[in-house]
Fold each of these.
Amino acid sequence: QVQLVESGGGSVQAGGSLRLSCAASGYTYRRYCMGWFRQVPGKEREKVASIDGDGRITYADFVKGRFTISKDNDKPTLHLQMGTLEPEDSAMYYCAAADRWLGYTCTGVYIYWGQGTQVTVSS
């Protein structure tokens, strides 16, 4: 059974930083995509960043070089280092993982999801 558990969320002031982590247990599809998504109540969930088994990384345009996704393949553990945070980054952040090829930009259906970790950025 695959379980994704996020940690590292919290409240910060604008301009601050947070590091999110996602511990994946029972996940053996290490050559496939893992990613971070976020959602604000009343809005659609959006992808923040993704990384595939070969280390190819994609970022959403709104990241603008402020975030860095990384993955420790041994566990595996997914990270999202977020810097220069803005109030617009406030959201529930979710870790997700795929069980099949999603293409070079990791676009497609992620079958495994964590429960989310809340990020709140105050101005």
Amino acid sequence: VQLVESGGGLVQAGGSLRISCAASGSIFSINAMGWYRQAPGKERELVAAISSGGSTYYADSVKGRFTISRDNAKNTLYLQMNSLKPEDTAMHYCATGPTIANMIARPPPIDSWGQGTQVTVSS
């Protein structure tokens, strides 16, 4: 599976941004999908994940602000980010995994990673 992220950019604090991840290749094998982020000097962390059945997981830091969704017809994963804060600044990576529980584990047994898209929130 190949994953290509898009939609990152620079936004002011309080603003919104939607990032996307287009999947191609052996998409029939995709189960859970998720968004991770990594800020300079910090570990990569799971932001949100969604199962093939639509169950979702959110990190406490983004609950109520971010929404993850997937369009199976378009083979695309989305992350709608509202009320952005400077601490949301990071490289955001799309990933696929066996289950949401697997994606939460450290280290997560990720099947595929995207190349990342930068999200920068100015104060």
Amino acid sequence: VQLVESGGGSVQAGGSLRLSCTASRYPTSSYCLGWFRQFPEKDREGVAAIDRAGSPTYTYSVKDRFTISKDNVQNTLYLQMNSLEPDDTAMYFCAADFYNLQLGRSYAYWGQGTQVTVS
């Protein structure tokens, strides 16, 4: 299973970015999918997750600002990030698992990460 993220970059506070994650081998409908982020010298934290049925879960700090979604035809996971804050600066990773892990860190498959910088 290969996951490839894109869409990171630099943006000013209050701006928006959309991250994408394309999955190979199995369709996204097969997985529970999540977005995680990692701050320097800290563990990865769950940001948002979406189960096979499309039900989302968010960590409190991004609720009402970020939206997770997936396109099962394009096999792509998205994270729309609005009202970005400097504290959102981190490396963002997508993850997939056949179990519904929600924001737990035990996902079996991970992408390589994409950097988001908010100034």
